[in-house]
């Protein structure tokens, strides 16, 4: 079902329900008022009969007939019929009914009449009369009548409400159609743009009628998504191009060295030299391939995270780094907030991946520092987050390259001849994202770069 049809249906249903409730309220309110008015009229007619009685218990005069099928029955205290205005009336109170009236003294009632669609109504009551009976018994009067005019007005009101509701619902349906069409017009405008968008290299963007309304916000979000998708596609193309180039270069070099050795090297020393160059290029190719595989595999990691102590991961990464670069000075420190806290740095993570991320940062810091000391520091950013910073005193990054170097196979413009593939920072960035953290690069005061990892902490109650 289309949205405009849902709007029409809901709009009409809500209004129809409101009109129905209001109509039922009006109809039954009028019916109750008519019934009370009829009961009041019947009571007055019954009370009038007391004025017709003499002290001797005789009836003098008559009651004016002002209601359709009006009938009056008057009984003496001895329960004998004293007055009957209509002979053969359609209601004849039996003994049991009269006894009930004498007990209650006042009884409105109604009964079905075969000649009418609505019931006839009556009133029965007792009064002492001009000469009360010594034994306390009273006169009993029963008045019945048919409220013809009242029922006609009630029926006319019912028909009017039914016709009015039908007309109102028809009008509401048309109004709802017009309203839904106008409300969804901006969406239809966007759909038309999508269906008629030209195919080509030129970037496509939605143009909303009103950028400030909800449809405009939706169009802006869709345009932002298009920008990200275009950027992702461009990055993928760049990655494929650079990866192809990076893989082709060592393969071409290896082939060249092997062909040269086979053609020109006739002694063992020359062959060993050619094979050594080929092995170095193979090592470079292996390192690049491993980096690309790690980068591809990290995107598929969705499990394997469990509570662990980040302090142990930091110390383990520092020890491994010291073994790989024995001459490199590494300073490890923990901040005052972390020391005063005294709790373990519990994070929901994968120890192997976090160690890879820290190893990449430490290795980069060592490569670009030219042998100068590097720092590894950890401290509490807040009670819920921990920050790990790797500082170097190397060549740093040029302004504006902090985001670019996080892309695959992209290196700083000042990297020069320093070995590397441009994969380590990308891998670190994705590992941190996997752990719901943040990773940023910033210039260090005094020269060099600071790599900052921010990770969410688990509550201390989560045991490892």
Automatic annotation (TrEMBL):
Domain of life: Bacteria
Residue ranges of the TM segments: 7-28, 160-179
Pfam families on file: HATPase_c, HisKA
Keyword Transmembrane helix: yes
GO cellular component term of the entry, any: membrane
Single GO term (MF): phosphorelay sensor kinase activity
Main location: membrane
Compartments, record wording: Membrane
Leader sequence segment: none
SUPFAM superfamilies: ATPase domain of HSP90 chaperone/DNA topoisomerase II/histidine kinase, Homodimeric domain of signal transducing histidine kinase
Protein name in the entry: histidine kinase
